[in-house]
Amino acid sequence: MTMTFDTHRVEQPSALASGSESAIVARKLRRTFKGGIEAVRDIDLAVSTGEVFGFLGPNGAGKTTTVRMLCTLLPPTAGTAMVAGLDVVREAAQVRRRIGVALQEIGLDPVQTGRELLELQCGLYGITGRLATTRADELLELVGLTDAAERRTKTYSGGMKRRLDLASALVHAPDVLFLDEPTTGLDPASRLTIWDEVRRINAGGATVFLTTQYMEEADKLCDRVAIIDNGQIVADGTPEQLKAEMGRDVVSVSLDGADPAATEAALGGLPGLERVAAEPGALALYVEDGASSIPEIVRRLDRDRILVGAISVARPSLDDVFLKATGRRLEGQQRSSQELEEVSR
Asked: What is the band of 175 on the pLDDT scale with cuts at 50, 70, 90?
């Protein structure tokens, strides 16, 4: 769903153009719902102008609630937030003129063509006549929908609808673009296409705040990421920084029916071992030198007559960072990564 806020085109200079270094700043931002449910708990955020910032976490972690507060759709219970140099509570109307938002729910009129929808959106921002036609053409080309411009949106695929929704959010050339899980539910090929669109939008000057459940999406697209769990930020930094901070190789042991507790006991005290993390059907061992640890792992399993499946070694991924920060992996990460690899070949 694309939000539309104002029926007047904004002519004043951008707040970001005045030299502000931060597109988004939040301090002690909190949202409590009825019954005392704390969806977001005193989080701090700072997103630099021109960044693609990734906000990661599982369903229910507080990602969407945070986005809705930053977009002025939901008032904070406590704390402050500035977007495009403006306070999201005291200057909500001005904030809305500076941002573009594409939420998870796509709200397109099925009987409109792609061009009609964009020209209507232009009109809501005071862009009319030939200017609206030109702007619609520019956006259709940007998101690769020129050939489908005269088709009704009900004939569009899920990926095409996402791209049109992105175009709608860009009609007024926003300083900051919020994308709430833009690729959830899309097939791998469509996800890669959306990634390309996000890169192009960012290259055009927009700061992008992207929420996602996909670690590889954050790794490929984002300059910096923050991981939120249970309403709190548990890790933040560039993807490379977060992975480097792990300081260990990851040895994955597929259990294939072996007893997790017995397997973990057999491997306890392994030289260079920092810790063992259990996940469904496998153990993840964090060791100083993954390759040299394999013979000892095999020897110990053989000694205790424990039969396991594959044993593999890898450098830490963002998924491993998430596991370390939260104690669990996000569901579907391995399958999602494999599907993307197949499409990319």
From this structure: very high
